[in-house]
Structures are given as structure tokens and as C-alpha cells.
């Protein structure tokens, strides 16, 4: 039998452990928001380009405040993101690996957009609190440019790598390689997935569809800059109306179905819009097969996206399915069968944060 003193010590130990957990979470938030500040000020880019700098040099190079730069440099050094080059100065440099993760926009390890995304969500916290209380939502438009652009920037390196993955999928590469093949990219966002497909399959025509006006404008600008404006078209359209634009040899839904308020309608429209012998492919988050309280880091990150961005966006539409980011295989299979499909096959088990499925 435990004594009262032992019970008190055990309780105190549990309290201390949980307090440390909360403290670690608070420090993680501080680091992430400091990353956002540093990125917005251009401080990481300046350090990556010029090497060790002190606060005065950094402020002059970026046209920012020396006093804020000084505080930020000290915080970043304490967090291990920067390393002190000259303690007497101090002059600091980016820690090993930090430049690629925070400034290399073409790297698969580029994670600075995470800070932007959660900063955009934090700016809407009063609206999120209201939505959680009432059951309403916060739309993608309300989250604003930081959310839109950070999603595009984080996904772009992976979309650039996507054609190499597609080539390994039996049948899919052959469909896309047909002369005159028509490709639909629903939920096309900034257009990077469409442009990657157009580069990889020069005999195909690609149509991107999205309901966000700002994303359509951004995607058209990106297509023009890439010299693909004649072969890649972007149109503001609801994916549930896809059949009116078909038929298509291949229809893709990259990292968007879980956001859609009416996924069954979209999958039914894809079934009507795909040409005979064509393919419908969904890439969505690689959620575990079932819920587990012992979830790993990826699952916890997906819940973060869902709590603060994807689920509120989905629920901002009347009659929403309210899927959220953690869309498991069984959920997608249920949606597909309701839409008239037979089953959902995993064709790429793991691709970054995602998994790739084919509807059959």
C-alpha cells in the first residue's frame, strides 16, 4: 500500500512532467513564430547569402529595425537555429542544415511555410473560437494570402518531384503519354502540380480547376512565367461540375479532397468526366489506418492542420461533410462507393506527407 507521502510525490512528479510538456509546447510556438518573423523580414535569406552578421549589419542589409534584429538574433541563438560566430559581437550564422530548411524553396526539406501557415491560422483565432462554439467555420479566403501562398510554397518541391513517382505506376504513365491526352487537376491551387505534369508530358493538355479566385490568378501568372500558358489552362470552377468540362484521360485531386465540403459529389463528377479506360487519382494525407492515442509526429501534425485550418475551412460551407485533414483510407473508400466507384486502391503508399490512391 502506498503512503500519503508517496502519493503526494507521485502526483507532484506527474504534475511536473505535464508542466514540462506544456512548457515545451510554448517554446515550440515561440520558435515557430520567430521563424515566421525572421522569414518575413528577410533575415534568413540575408544570413544564408552573406554569412555571419551582427544586428546592425543584418538591419542595414534588410532595411529593418536594429533593436528588433538584436532581440531576434539572441532568441534564435538560444533556440539553436543560429550559431554565435563571435561572442564578443556577437555575430551569428545559420546553424548546419538551417539554410536549406528555411531558405531553399526548391528543397523537399523546405519547411518555412509551416510557420507562415500557422501564423495565418493564429491571426484568425477569434473567428476560430467562435466557429468551435457555434459549429460554423472559417473559410480559406479568410485565412488569407499567407495560408494560400505557404501551402503553394511547401507543396511545390513535392509537385516538381511528382512525375518521377507517376512514371513508376503501371498504366498511369502510359495514359499521360498519349498524344493529345487531356488531364484535369482539380483543386489546383497555385498551379504547381499542373505545371509539373505539363513539363513532364509535353503532348498533353492540362486543365486546372479551383474555386479560389486568388489561387486562379496566381496559377495563371505562374503558367505564363513558365511559358506554358498555351497548354495549361486554369479556370474557376467547382469540381462537382467537372463533367461539363470533360472527358479527361486522367483526373487528379492533389491534396484537396479532404478540404472539399462535398467530396462525394466531386468523386461522382470525376466518374462522369473520365474517359473510358481513363484514371482518377487522389493524393491526400497519409493518415494512419485507424486512430491511436500513440500517434506519431506526422499524425499529430495532420491534426494540427485539421484543427486550425482544414476542418474550419470545410465547415464554412453549408451541408459540409466536415472531413478534416485526417482522412483515413476507409473514409475515402466510403466516399468513393457512395459516388458509384467500386473501390480505392493505394498505388503509392508514401510520398512525403501523402499517399496516392486510384479509384477503381
From TrEMBL:
<dbReference type="InterPro" id="IPR053173">
    <property type="entry name" value="SAM-binding_MTase"/>
</dbReference>
<dbReference type="InterPro" id="IPR029063">
    <property type="entry name" value="SAM-dependent_MTases_sf"/>
</dbReference>
<dbReference type="InterPro" id="IPR048711">
    <property type="entry name" value="WHD_Rv2258c"/>
</dbReference>
<dbReference type="GO" id="GO:0008168">
    <property type="term" value="F:methyltransferase activity"/>
</dbReference>
<dbReference type="Pfam" id="PF21320">
    <property type="entry name" value="WHD_Rv2258c"/>
</dbReference>
<dbReference type="GO" id="GO:0032259">
    <property type="term" value="P:methylation"/>
</dbReference>
<dbReference type="InterPro" id="IPR025714">
    <property type="entry name" value="Methyltranfer_dom"/>
</dbReference>
<dbReference type="Pfam" id="PF13847">
    <property type="entry name" value="Methyltransf_31"/>
</dbReference>
<feature type="domain" description="Methyltransferase">
    <location>
        <begin position="179"/>
        <end position="289"/>
    </location>
</feature>
<dbReference type="InterPro" id="IPR036388">
    <property type="entry name" value="WH-like_DNA-bd_sf"/>
</dbReference>
<feature type="domain" description="S-adenosylmethionine-dependent methyltransferase Rv2258c-like winged HTH">
    <location>
        <begin position="34"/>
        <end position="103"/>
    </location>
</feature>
<keyword id="KW-0808">Transferase</keyword>
<dbReference type="InterPro" id="IPR036390">
    <property type="entry name" value="WH_DNA-bd_sf"/>
</dbReference>
<keyword id="KW-0489">Methyltransferase</keyword>
<protein>
    <submittedName>
        <fullName>Methyltransferase domain-containing protein</fullName>
    </submittedName>
</protein>
Amino acid at each position: 500500500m502506498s503512503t500519503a507521502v508517496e502519493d503526494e510525490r507521485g502526483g507532484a512528479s506527474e504534475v511536473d512532467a505535464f508542466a514540462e510538456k506544456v512548457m515545451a509546447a510554448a517554446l515550440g510556438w515561440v520558435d515557430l513564430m520567430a521563424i515566421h518573423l525572421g522569414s518575413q523580414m528577410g533575415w534568413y535569406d540575408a544570413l544564408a547569402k552573406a554569412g555571419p552578421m551582427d544586428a546592425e549589419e543584418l538591419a542595414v542589409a534588410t532595411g529593418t529595425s536594429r533593436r528588433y534584429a538584436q532581440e531576434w538574433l539572441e532568441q534564435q541563438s538560444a533556440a539553436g537555429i543560429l550559431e554565435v560566430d563571435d561572442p564578443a559581437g556577437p555575430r551569428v550564422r545559420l546553424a548546419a542544415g538551417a539554410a536549406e530548411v528555411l531558405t531553399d524553396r526548391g528543397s523537399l526539406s523546405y519547411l518555412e511555410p509551416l510557420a507562415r501557415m500557422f501564423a495565418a491560422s493564429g491571426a484568425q483565432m477569434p473567428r476560430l473560437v467562435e466557429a468551435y462554439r457555434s459549429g460554423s467555420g472559417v473559410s480559406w479566403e479568410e485565412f488569407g494570402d499567407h495560408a494560400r501562398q505557404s501551402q503553394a510554397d511547401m507543396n511545390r518541391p513535392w509537385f516538381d518531384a511528382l512525375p518521377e513517382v507517376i512514371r513508376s505506376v503501371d498504366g498511369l504513365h502510359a495514359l499521360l503519354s498519349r498524344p493529345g491526352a487531356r488531364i484535369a487537376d482539380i483543386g489546383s491551387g497555385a498551379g504547381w502540380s499542373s505545371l509539373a505534369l505539363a513539363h513532364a508530358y509535353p503532348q498533353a493538355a492540362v486543365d486546372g480547376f479551383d474555386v479560389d479566385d486568388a489561387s486562379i490568378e496566381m496559377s495563371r501568372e505562374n503558367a505564363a512565367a513558365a511559358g506554358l500558358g498555351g497548354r495549361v489552362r486554369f479556370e474557376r470552377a467547382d469540381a462537382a461540375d467537372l463533367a461539363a468540362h470533360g472527358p479527361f484521360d486522367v483526373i487528379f485531386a492533389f491534396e484537396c479532397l479532404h478540404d472539399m465540403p462535398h467530396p462525394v459529389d466531386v468523386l461522382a463528377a470525376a466518374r462522369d468526366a473520365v474517359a473510358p479506360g481513363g484514371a482518377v487519382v487522389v493524393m491526400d494525407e497519409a493518415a494512419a489506418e485507424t486512430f491511436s492515442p500513440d500517434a506519431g509526429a506526422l499524425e499529430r501534425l495532420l491534426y494540427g492542420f485539421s484543427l486550425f485550418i482544414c476542418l474550419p475551412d470545410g465547415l464554412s460551407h453549408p451541408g459540409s461533410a466536415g472531413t478534416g485533414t485526417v482522412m483515413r483510407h476507409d473514409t475515402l473508400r466510403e466516399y468513393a462507393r457512395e459516388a458509384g466507384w467500386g473501390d480505392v486502391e493505394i498505388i503509392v503508399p508514401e510520398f512525403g506527407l501523402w499517399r496516392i490512391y486510384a479509384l477503381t
